[in-house]
């Protein structure tokens, strides 16, 4: 069996950071196992490739949830990255950290070292911001953060609509204040996607002490008693294993990290026994506490070619844009689709924004899986701190089977109530003159008038905006799965480092926070 000091499972946003930072020391050997491929072709690099990856299985696990009673029994869709870079290889590249109070909340829950002031240095360590140079931002890190290079006039129309409603503007959502509307900064460099793999792994692939194995799904963690000693994985259908002298680090993301723990015998003992899995440690919290941003997307037809769409004129325009991109690295191909948006309060008395908007340069219908002829734009609105709590459980003891994902969307009546307010606020922006004059048809909401109509369409059309977290909850209490150093409780030599450790969902997109978690974990591991 090949032996390393550390074996990292999952080369996603957090896993790439951990593997890269630990292997900075040439005396430490690291093996990174990634189920997907290298994630370094044009569809990943060209930001517009998101339109191909999210609705399909290209670099994407493309999970479904179990039927959701809160969504009229519909199954939700859950895209997740399956390649080096993980979900940062298929995401919308919006660079957001969440609100200061989110991290202070983690610390208040009994997680010393995770307050905003504690994590800010790790956000800055990761970051190389091309746009803002102040105390909130880093300029020397591997993760390039840039302004959007599309110069799409609809950014201005969206902001103008906000101004027409006297809404506040914000030029840096990761600075002193989060509230307001603005254009998003993106994880791109020279107009290319800057995934965690691009930022952290690619420059270091030649390190002799770092071995990256792609196409290598981990099947289970190997234990000697209660100590993790290695990982069994498969490659080209054949079983293989690697030994970890110091630690196994699981970075499979919010759905697959709890799955791997459970397949390896860490989870609810009764459930595991029921599936014939040998119990290593009874930890009923594994897979529980799933939180995700429930989202509603408005959609409008328009004649403008500044929006993505299917038409002869549109294809001709796109062809020209591809030429422009190849020449100058600018234009529509650099679009992350969700170019602008912002953070608002559904109640002025709230201390922090509770909803986020993503204005979309395309019609938004079922994650791009329902295609429409013509062009249009849309706007997503999501609930930042939902009360509903879901779960990830095993469907079987087969590591190749997808886990059962149950976000329990709208399980809490409060979530639906706040989304009704969020719907009304977003619609006012969409109806403001600066935007309304561009639309030729309101695709789904023209007849929606009363609160009951709104509740009904929310149940019919809401789904995730791709930020599941919390299924391997960090905490100092007995029910927590990992401690504040991210060590799995009840066993030795095992940590989980990714979005699954978040005790509560942060108010914003989750890529930069997952990278921060990787940075902080690497420091904690190095410190011993
Ligand atoms: C469509 C989409 C759009 C998004 N848009 C944004 C955005 O604009 N901004 C933002 O901040 N966030 C966004 N996010 C969310 C963000 O990208 C994720 O929260 C973040 O990438 C999660 O990081 P992670 O390390 O927890 O997991 P991931 O990045 O998902 O990484 C997990 C990795 O582990 C691998 N893996 C899992 N199990 C195994 C196994 N058993 N063996 C080997 N490998 C395994 C997976 O293949 C994957 O590569 C988006 C996500 C999606 C899906």
Which features would summarize this protein structure in a list?
528 residues, alpha/beta, eight-stranded antiparallel β-sheet, 14 helices, globular, binds flavin-adenine dinucleotide
Q: In terms of per-residue confidence, which ranges show pLDDT below 50 for 5 or more consecutive residues?
A: none
Bound molecules: flavin-adenine dinucleotide
Structural class by sheet pairing and helices? alpha/beta
What assembly state would you assign to the polypeptide chains in this entry? single chain
Structure in words:
With 528 residues, the protein is α/β, with parallel strands linked by helices. It has helices at 13-22, 42-45, 50-53, 100-108, 116-126, 153-164, 196-201, 253-263, 269-274, 312-328, 413-431, 433-436, 451-461, 511-527, and strands at 2-9, 30-33, 63-68, 74-78, 127-129, 143-145, 180-183, 188-189, 192-193, 210-213, 218-224, 227-235, 238-250, 266-267, 281-282, 294-302, 309-310, 340-344, 355-360, 374-383, 391-393, 404-406, 439-442, 463-464, 494-496. The protein starts with a strand and ends with a helix. The structure holds flavin-adenine dinucleotide. The site of flavin-adenine dinucleotide (FAD) has 41 residues, from helix 1, helix 8 and helix 14. The site of flavin-adenine dinucleotide has 41 residues, from helix 1, helix 8 and helix 14.
């Amino acid at each position: 069996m090949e032996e390393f000091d550390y074996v990292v499972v999952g080369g996603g946003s957090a896993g790439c950071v951990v593997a890269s930072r630990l292997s900075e020391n040439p005396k430490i050997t690291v093996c990174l196992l990634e189920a997907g491929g290298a994630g370094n072709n044009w569809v990943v690099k060209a930001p517009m490739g998101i339109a191909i990856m999210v609705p399909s299985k290209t670099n994407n696990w493309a999970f479904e949830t179990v039927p959701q009673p809160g969504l009229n029994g519909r199954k939700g869709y859950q895209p997740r990255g399956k390649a080096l870079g993980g979900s940062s290889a298929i995401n919308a590249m919006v660079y957001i950290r969440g609100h200061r109070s989110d991290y202070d909340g983690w610390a208040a829950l009994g997680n010393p070292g995770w307050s905003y002031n504690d994590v800010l240095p790790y956000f800055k360590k990761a970051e190389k911001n091309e746009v803002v140079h102040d105390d909130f931002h880093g300029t020397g890190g591997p993760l390039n953060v840039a302004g959007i290079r599309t110069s799409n006039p609809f950014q201005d129309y969206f902001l103008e609509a906000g101004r027409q409603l006297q809404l506040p503007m914000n030029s840096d959502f990761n600075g002193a204040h989060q509230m307001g509307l603005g254009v998003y900064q993106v994880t791109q460099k020279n107009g290319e996607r800057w995934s965690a793999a691009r930022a952290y792994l690619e420059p270091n692939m030649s390190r002799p002490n770092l071995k990256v194995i792609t196409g290598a799904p981990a099947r289970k963690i190997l234990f000697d008693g209660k100590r993790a000693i290695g990982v069994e994985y498969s490659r080209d259908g054949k079983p293989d294993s690697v030994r970890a002298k110091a630690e196994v680090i699981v970075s499979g993301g919010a759905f697959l990290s709890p799955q791997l723990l459970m397949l390896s015998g860490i989870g609810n003992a009764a459930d595991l026994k029921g599936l014939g899995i040998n119990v290593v440690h009874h930890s009923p919290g594994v897979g529980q506490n799933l939180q995700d941003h429930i989202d509603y997307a408005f959609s409008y037809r328009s004649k403008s070619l500044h929006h993505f769409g299917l038409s002869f004129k549109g294809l001709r325009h796109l062809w020209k844009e591809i030429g422009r991109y190849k020449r100058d690295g600018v234009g529509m191909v650099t679009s992350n689709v969700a170019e602008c948006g912002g953070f608002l309060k559904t109640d002025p008395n709230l201390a922090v924004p509770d909803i986020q908007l993503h204005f979309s340069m395309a019609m938004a219908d079922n994650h791009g899986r329902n295609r429409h002829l013509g062009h249009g734009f849309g706007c997503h609105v999501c609930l930042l701190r939902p009360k509903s709590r879901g779960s990830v459980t095993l469907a079987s003891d087969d590591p190749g089977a997808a886990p059962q994902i149950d976000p329990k969307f709208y399980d809490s009546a409060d979530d639906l109530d706040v989304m009704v307010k969020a719907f009304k606020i977003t619609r006012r922006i969409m109806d403001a003159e600066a935007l309304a004059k561009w639309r030729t048809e309101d695709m789904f909401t023209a007849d929606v008038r009363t609160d009951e109509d709104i509740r009904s369409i929310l149940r019919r059309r809401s789904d995730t905006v791709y930020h599941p977290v919390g299924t391997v909850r960090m905490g100092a209490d007995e029910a927590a799965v990992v401690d504040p150093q991210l060590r799995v409780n009840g066993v030795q030599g095992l940590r989980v480092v990714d979005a699954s450790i978040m005790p509560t969902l942060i108010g914003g997109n989750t890529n930069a926070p997952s990278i921060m978690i990787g940075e902080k974990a690497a420091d904690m591991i190095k410190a011993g």
